[in-house]
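Feature request, filed as a ticket because there's no other form

It would be nice if the structure record came with a short human-readable summary line next to the tokens. Right now we just get the raw output. Example of a typical job, pasted below so the devs can see what we mean:
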Amino acid sequence: MTRFVIVSFLPDNINKILEPVRDHFEPGVNAQIPPHISLTYPFFWKAEKNELVREMEKETRNFSPFLAIISGIGVFFNPSHSGGVKGKQVIYAQVLPEEPFREIHKSFEKALTGNVKFDTSQFPQKTLPSFIPHITLVMNGVEKDLKTAQKMISSVIGYSFMVENVWLLKKEEGSEKWEKVKEITF
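Raw output as currently delivered:
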């Protein structure tokens, strides 16, 4: 079964700094998917793919390009570890302002309702967690990884970039790599 996700990719100058950080902690992760901000949780689409693209195009008309900034580093428990096993953390780069990302997330979530089944397999309670706009750096980090990641991304703290489009990605069953399907510009 094909999984889909909607993301916002980052400019090359930021990726050149973040990719080595991600590879340091999870070698090969950038080959699966470059650094990005997920705007939806992974999902299975029940209708025609062209209908999904039309829904995305309709929703993106409601948004304008906006300036985002990498503001620091954050941590939350890795949801794939039941009950948030102590020490297993997702370490991420924070992006601000959060509100435009949250609005886009809510808009897509609402538009997709009815034709989508969100992939909750990675969440122990089988429910989707609250949406936090972020750029994942480490999926299974521990305390010492946080300090290392902070040092490694210090040069991008304060970087700003324009968010002007979103990408629909797909991942075929058995594949490790997410593939680009369609770019939609605001």
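Something like this underneath would help us a lot:
The helical segments are 12-25, 29-32, 49-60, 98-112, 143-153.
DSSP finds five helices and ten strands in the chain.
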